Amino acid sequence: MPDFSDEAEVTRVAKRDTRAELLARRHALTGPARAAAAGRVQAELVALVRRLRPRRMTAYVPVGSEPGGPDLPAVLRAALPSGAELLLPVLRDDLDLDWAAYTGPDGLVAAGRGIREPIGPRLGVTVVAGAELVVVPALAVDRQGRRLGRGGGSYDRALARVPTATLTVVPLHDDELVEALPVEPHDRPVRAVVTPADGVRALGGGPGTAYGVAPHTSAGRTRGQ
Predict the structure, then answer these.
(1) Where are the domains of the chain?
(2) C-alpha span between 180 and 163 (Å, rounded)
(3) Which of 58, 157, 183, 184 lies most in the core, judged by the most C-beta atoms within 10 Å?
(4) CA atoms within 13 A on the CB side of 98
(5) CB of 203 within 8 A of CB of 193?
(6) Which residues are 202's β-sheet partners?
(7) Separation of alpha carbons 58 and 136, rounded Å
(8) What does the radius of gyration of the chain's CA atoms come to, in whole angstroms?
(9) Where is this region: Disordered (predicted)?
(10) In CATH, which superfamily holds the domain spanning 6-215?
């Protein structure tokens, strides 16, 4: 049942305003700045994939100013071990996420809102539970691992199916790792972020360090946030 309390409304308004501010910052990034950030994020994620060697992982196709660049799936797939599977999300009518295997750029189609999705067989909403590495988008993440998405709730539903021991990672621009974010009960935390300046860092006391991911500390680049 939706929460209609004053406190819940304050949180929703705070989320809306924070989203608007973060999106404005992303839109203000120059083309060269976006390209440089995408290259660094890709390099860090490739190093992580090669270290973990997952047999199945998930990612997505970044759009617009999202960190990672539109060729992120191709880069990650090339880093996977032979026979491993990269799954990408397929947005359902109810805003939940189905999943399908990424087979290459020619296997993607436009799906509205700038999103590109795989055309292969749908594997079901629960297949994400079997992924060994889960890469998800967000506008920002705080130091406890709480993420702020675009408001549809799709990834919160998907993350609810992911075992707590699974490494979940969000690519961000450098100023999008913040001290705290407004949070609601349905919001699902992530275990790590990757930024151009600091690479992959574990958050919130999660299991990231068990995967060789360094913990985030106050020495990380969080100035001006």
Answers:
(1) 6-215
(2) 24
(3) 58
(4) 15
(5) yes
(6) 192, 215
(7) 8
(8) 17
(9) 205-225
(10) NagB/RpiA/CoA transferase-like (3.40.50.10420)
Residues 74 and 63: their CA atoms lie apart, in Å, by 14
Tell if the pTM clears 0.85, that is, is over it. Answer: yes
Q: Please, what is the end-to-end C-alpha distance for the chain in angstroms?
A: 34
What is the tens place of the pLDDT at every residue in 5-26?
A: 455 677 778 888 999 999 999 9
How far is it, in rounded angstroms, from Cα 105 to Cα 139? 25
**CA triple 140-146-150, angle to 5 deg:** 50
Q: How far apart are CA 177 and CA 132, in angstroms?
A: 24
**Selection from 152, 162, 84, 92 nearest residue 127 by Cα:** 162
- CA dihedral sign, ordered 180, 183, 185, 188: negative
d(CA 24, CA 15): 14
What crossing angle do the helices spanning 72-79 and 31-52 adopt, rounded to 10°? Answer: 20
Please report the sign of the dihedral spanned by the C-alpha atoms of residue 21, residue 199, residue 46, residue 213. negative
Contacts 24+ apart (CB under 8 A), 68-73: 68/38, 68/41, 68/42, 68/171, 69/34, 69/35, 69/38, 69/39, 69/41, 69/42, 70/116, 71/42, 71/105, 72/38, 72/41, 72/42, 72/45, 72/171, 73/102
Question: Are 131 and 165 contacting, i.e. CB atoms less than 8 angstroms apart?
Answer: no
| Structure tokens that stand for 5 in this block | 């309390």
